[in-house]
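Course assignment 3, question 2. Fill in each field.
Student: A.L.
Task: Predict the tertiary structure for the chain below.
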Amino acid sequence: FRKKININAVNVLKRTALHFAVAGNHISAVDFLLHHKARVDIADKHGLTAIHLAAWSGNLEIMLMLIKAGADQKAKNQEGMNVLHFAAKNNGVRIVNYFIRDLHLMELNKPDEKGRKPFLLAAEMGHEEMIDELITLNLFTSEKDKEGNTALHLAAKNGHTDVVEILLQQWEDINEFNQNCETPFYMAVEGGHEKCADLLLEAGSDINILNK
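Answer field:
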């Protein structure tokens, strides 16, 4: 006889077979699971649904399959991150373009629980292509996160020279402090990122500004 299998069974992390199929970019497995009515919006213990994993992997084909199956396009994990955050953080340009250019879901461009919009995450990770695309999509922001860091702070802190160079073309006040009274230049120097520090100095960073 044939035993009935629970296609939505979860492991200790509350992840289903669909979570693993999507995370592994296994298109045929995703198709099989969706054909057998796997639930698309089950969240694991961190609030991650399959659509978040598709955004992280950058697989647009799987993303389209999930959305066709009814996945919640605006779902957030426990850290307040949606598909746009995950795509920006992992350089998923095609995913960002789909949600912004095709679906016009500009409301996804919101801060997560740390106060970071997708633009700040892309800057922190040093994704030059993503930064360029977000600027083209009018998703550039000079806003600060909850620690007072701007995209320029985060890029400088992590030594992302190419991103710093792009941001300097958009920036007005390069001597802004974060909550620790650190400027982007200070963070570049502190991290030993000489090229970033040189760029910021050439752009007018105050070398003698006090860290209070």
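Instructor remarks: The longest helix spans residues 93-102. The domain at 1-78 is CATH 1.25.40.20 (Serine Threonine Protein Phosphatase 5, Tetratricopeptide repeat).
Grade: pending
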